[in-house]
Amino acid sequence: MEFGWAPEQVQYRERVKAALDDLLPADWDETYVPESYASDLQVQFSREFCAKLAERGLLVPHWPKEYGGNESPDWEHFILGEEMKAAGEPRGPQYMNVNWIGPTLLKYGTEAQKAQHVQGIASGTVIWCQGFSEPNAGTDLAALRTRAERDGDHYIVNGSKIWTSYARTADWCFLLARTGPTRKDISILLIPMDTPGISVTSFPGMIKDGHLNEVFFTDVRVPVANRVGEEGEAWTIVTHALSYERVGVPRYHTGLQALELAVEQLKEEGRWHDDPIVRSRAGSIAAKFEGARMLTYLVVDQRVKKLPSNTDANLSRVASLEAVIEMLNFLAEFLPDCLSGGNALLEDYYRINIPAGITGGTNEIQLDLVAQRGLGLPRG
Amino acid sequence: MDFQLSEDQEALVSALHSILQDHAELPQAERFGYSCFNAELQGILADSGFLSAAREIGPIEAALVTIETARLPVLVETAATGLVAPMVLGEAIEGPVALIDGKAMDKAHRNLPIARTALVDLGEDVAVLAIEPADVEPVESVLAFPYGRFRKAPDLAKARRLPGAGEALRQWWRVALAAEVAGAAQAAIAFTIDYVKQREVFGRPVGSFQSVQHRLVQCHAHAQSCYYLALRAAWSGDPVDADCAASFAQQGVQRLLFDLHQFHGGMGVTTEHLLHFWLYRIRALQAEAGGVHRIGLEIANRLWPDAPAAAQRMAQAG
């Protein structure tokens, strides 16, 4: 058991940071980050940024060599993710492409699908959106109602998706649609977003612009050749696909960075040195994020060792959320003006994290899974 | 980064377990007490080298011994004796060892009735006090350690003094308390899971209610984080890691005590039910080595001192 970084991992982190220093514009923090990574501005920027990242071998380093990767170790992939998130995720929506859409196509896609999509993802120029959630199917994804009915060599898709981040600017949609009568008769279709019959409506909300979109499908014709895997196989494939994302966003990393910013702000305002209450709270929150970090690294270590999947990833999300909640409370209590024009970066952190316990499966589902599958408690 | 025990560490834990299995039973006569120190087991652990692990192998191995022994309902003193004292003194001293806050000499101290040596935190320095049993008056406490106070204030001026060792004492005290909380919390949670699977109310197991499940998982998350934070702090020897481990451990005491008691209902407040042996050890550790607010303050002072460059430390540590 040991808790240090290997020298090559330290070097890798430095390499990623150096790339960020080189590739991000001088006004990145002032102009881009406050807009949030789903904004049209950042999505557009991601096409330019990810292409350059690809040139440096830092977009899909974990992929197989034949598809543009370098088969880099899992820890390096994780370090890359930490640094990108800490920088405000300049990959925009393309973190999804490289983390799970691309790998899913590599594993389950046809040769034609790989030829059509993989190069675009690996070169950092294509934007995808994820057509999963619906008004009545969020965490309970299998309740989705969008239908795809067979019509010769096409499917006819009708229905709607919601909370579809990046839908306004996406080139393609990775869609889940119902293709049969039972709860898990769901299939995956890859749909160009400019297909006739697709419309996107954005709506306002508490989180930043670009995340809150509704996508309507009206008699949208999709070739059967655009289906990934067999009909009704989506559940298996998506479970595998999202295993790439098991631990989710490294919230301890972004959280500690926000805490750092908050401390700087408090120091500037002269509200740090003479106030043991605020300092003690900040120190306690740092400890909470460190606790969350431990459980996240535990999961990465298990993945590196190819150990069987368990509920530790769900547990890490529970721990991260608790620390995030304390951080949001800290901001609201000691720097409330960050939500009224006082600090754009802290406002961005706060607003992105309003749904931290909802996105990627609610906290309650994580708790259920650990209770029943991890601790062996009986179902109610 | 490697979160699994090495083969040698597995062997150490396995050898320890085989001793604990044979010698850690709670005597029937002690079952209703608030704490039960097992002097025989303490001697066996000392004689078989488990309390020398910090000097002979390393602090992470000593922390593992502390965690594993903290899982027992009976008490043995491994935290101060096997981890803190060797790391502060670098030499063997007579145990068991008690850790004492020098600003509260007249109060009752944890483990004083069983101690042969006490390390007294004097701020800058540390005093090493030899303890004679006759000098200690036992004090009854609901906290699950033996407590006692000095019959007469010891003469600290005559005690051996370790100049400048105060900070190291507090650092390893914090690692040790986090390790003890981790082991005791994991054991209390395992005990609770067994109980709520069997105990039925309204025709179904207590553990099938979502309100119980969710809170148990939150307790479990806390204990697991505590375990790895304590071991990381032992591994690194970094004062911030030690502070984070202790702060995290102490921040969760309120939840552990309230929720785990709740899930055992009325049984949990009887002394025949064992739960108190773990929970009231955790409670006793809540205020030690500074307590959660002071430790939080020290984390902030270390992470965000005046020099802005130092403030980058934790984010960069990754």
TrEMBL record, chain A:
SUPFAM superfamilies: Acyl-CoA dehydrogenase C-terminal domain-like, Acyl-CoA dehydrogenase NM domain-like. Residues 129-219 form the Acyl-CoA oxidase/dehydrogenase middle domain. Residues 10-124 form the Acyl-CoA dehydrogenase/oxidase N-terminal domain. Residues 235-374 form the Acyl-CoA dehydrogenase/oxidase C-terminal domain. Its cofactor is FAD. GO terms for molecular function: flavin adenine dinucleotide binding; oxidoreductase activity, acting on the CH-CH group of donors. Coiled coil: none annotated. InterPro entries: Acyl-CoA_Oxase/DH_mid-dom (IPR006091), Acyl-CoA_Oxase/DH_mid-dom_sf (IPR046373), AcylCo_DH-like_C (IPR036250), AcylCo_DH/oxidase_C (IPR009075), AcylCoA_DH/ox_N (IPR013786), AcylCoA_DH/ox_N_sf (IPR037069), AcylCoA_DH/oxidase_NM_dom_sf (IPR009100), Mycobact_Acyl-CoA_DH (IPR052161). Keywords: FAD, Flavoprotein, Oxidoreductase. The keyword Oxidoreductase applies. Belongs to the acyl-CoA dehydrogenase family. This is Acyl-CoA dehydrogenase family protein.
TrEMBL record, chain B:
Coiled coil: none annotated. Gene3D superfamilies: Butyryl-CoA Dehydrogenase, subunit A, domain 3. GO terms for molecular function: acyl-CoA dehydrogenase activity. Keywords: FAD, Flavoprotein, Oxidoreductase. It comes from the Bacteria. It holds the Pfam family Acyl-CoA_dh_1. Residues 173-290 form the Acyl-CoA dehydrogenase/oxidase C-terminal domain. InterPro entries: AcylCo_DH-like_C (IPR036250), AcylCo_DH/oxidase_C (IPR009075). The keyword Transcription regulation does not apply. The keyword Transmembrane helix does not apply. PANTHER family: ACYL-COA DEHYDROGENASE, ACYL-COA DEHYDROGENASE FADE28. This is Acyl-CoA dehydrogenase/oxidase C-terminal domain-containing protein. It comes from Sphingomonas chungangi.
